Amino acid sequence: MFTRYLLPAVAVCTLLFAVFQMTKAQQKPAPVSPPIEPGKSPYLKQLAGAGIVESETENIAVGSHVPGVVTKVFVKVGELVEPEQRLFELDDRFQRAEFEVRKAAQMSAEATVKKLKESPRREERPIYEAKLLEAEVNFREQSQLYDRLKKISNTSSISEEELEKRFMGNELGKAQLAKSRADFKLWEAGTWLPDLEIAQAALAQTVAQRVQSEVDLSRLTAKAPHARWKAVSNGTEVPDDAGVKFKVLQVSIRPGEFVGAAAGQALIVLGYVGKLHVRVDIDENDIIRFRPNLVGVAKPRGNPDVGFPLTYVRVEPYVIPKRSLTGANTERVDTRVLQVIYSIDTQGQSLYVGQQMDVFLNAGEK
Amino acid sequence: MNWVALRMLTGDKAKYLGIVFGVSFAALLMAQQSAIFAGLMRNTTSQIRDIEGADIWVMDKSVQFVDDIKPMSENRLLRVRGVEGVAWAVKLYKSVARAKLADGTFQQVILLGLDYDNKDSAGRVVGQPRAERILAGNWEDLEQPDAVFLDEFGWRYLFGDTPYEQGRSLEINNKRANIVGMVKCKPTFQTFPILYTKYSQAIQYNPPEPKTLSFILVKAQDGVPHNELCAAITKQTGMKAQTNDEFFWTTIQYYMERTGIPINFGITVFLGFVVGCAIAGQTFYLFTLENLKQFGSLKAMGVSNLRIIKMVMLQALVVGLIGYGLGVGGAALFGLVFETFVKSAPPAFYFGWQILVIAAVAVAVIITLSAAMSLKKVLFLEAGVVFR
Fold first, then answer.
1. Of the candidates B287, B247, B187, which has an alpha carbon nearest to the alpha carbon of residue B48?
2. Is the pTM here over 0.90, yes or no?
3. Across the interface, do A37 and B350 touch by the CB < 8 Å criterion?
4. In this complex, is the C-beta atom of B317 within 8 Å of any C-beta atom belonging to chain A?
5. What values do phi and psi take at B236, rounded to 5?
6. Boundaries of every domain in chain B
């Protein structure tokens, strides 16, 4: 019984079990459905790149001329500002004090020049005239004394020595009169011209120092730059700001913070956002497939269903080391990229400056 | 006559059971060992099978298998997107990281970073486990800061028998990883827990590397043959591109060539075969010897040699079938028990149709050899032996 029927029956059962286990292991799950389509390319032949939205003027990172502590910030993020509008101000106490010193120095120099210009001083004339008169009278007295002694010199009533003494007295009186006359003339002539010129030069120097101080003061206030310049007939250029308004994209400073004057700091970022541009990085290996005037679409990260049409603007002719825009943990240079600027049609939707885009360029059409 | 042959077979219970036991033991050993071998090999490719949705894997040209990561520049993704025939391409991060548990111990984990820069319109990403694989938590929670999904075996590996609970966290490279859910993953070869997270998050978990991109997953445009697209990608970008299946076999090939696993399992399977041959062949031969008298009588009655061959073959076939059924059934049962009760290790048992075929062929060879040995004796038998 066992050998004839049971064992074969058990064997059939276990075989069926094995086949069942086999089919279970063999089962393949149906493919993931519906298939997901992340950022599907719209073109048959395409060139892909990473893009970043920027303003038409590119982003202007306003810096500070000098290091210092911020006292006032005049703009808020999102505000529109015109060229020359004040953006922020640094602490100016030191520069203001220096300005006062320079101003005082200038006043002092001005007074010196004025004094020199207004000499001879009228009130001094009687003094000099009196001195002259004194010298004349003295001379007359000495000469009369000497003459009198000379007449009686033949007689031996006076000594040789006495006569000599009177002669010297007469000579001295003459010399004193000459000196008084010269003094009077010098005074009457007033300031010597080179003296005046020296004083005027000193004045000019103090003026220049005051102006320098003023410039130092004005450099503490950062202002919005001019966007455009136009040439005028005499060969110089003047700002052409008609209609230009910048949007304040970022304010990274607050009153009380210290700012340095190092390059590359973005204290306040401005951008002319009339139109938006996309800066597309094209890998150096793909440059050969790039031609100017390729059309394309840009898809924002996280929203692959939306595609913004791109129009070619220009290509940056310098191939730069790639700055990692693709979300890597740090910026590293591993390849070089060609940057191409495209103008983006936002189609009324809001896009933000600095937003990353996946860019697809149509490399198929000639 | 067939009935006579079967009566003859079952007449001696001990020998009959001996032959069946020999065959079934050989079948069991071969089927079970090959299934474990196939399972182990298959486990090496678990991530290839777990990450679904794409057609083609693109990697650095020197990559030898799925765990052999040669990080690439992220610009390569853009270059792959520029290849004609590519519908879409996304990046994938894969690495091994060291996680620190709350009690201060360390554990290696497999990190998978999915490309959240490229979501589809429904907010899903490529490589996202299908709904039935998500055992706990909401997949959307992965977009929370520091969020990771841990796999089921990984949970058991890290937290033992504690059932899943929300709010556990790990520390990887001094950064927090909040476990927000649990997914079912296919068992892995390395046995390490698997963490799913965002690409951008995953690269934070490892010390800074100059290059981070591990794989690029590509979907072919409708109607573009996958192997042609692979060739086009390789031609235009210089990278290695393989379809899911090709990459699966490349990985298995690597382990076949570089490890002793196939040789060890091959030896065991061969031993099973030899033991089967020895037991079944010997017993069957003894059984035939014992029944020589009966065969002699049949011959004396004028039964043709062809008839005798058929009878012996039938006997062999019956024991072969029974033994095979018992053997592979036992192997399948072993697999079921192994998968159900062994919780500490990811199961390595793949019971494919190939296993059944291999065991069947081996059993067929065993019984044919046994029958041939016995037939030699029977065919050269003189009918007169009965009367001696």
1. B247
2. no
3. no
4. no
5. -80, -30
6. 2-44+260-387, 73-238
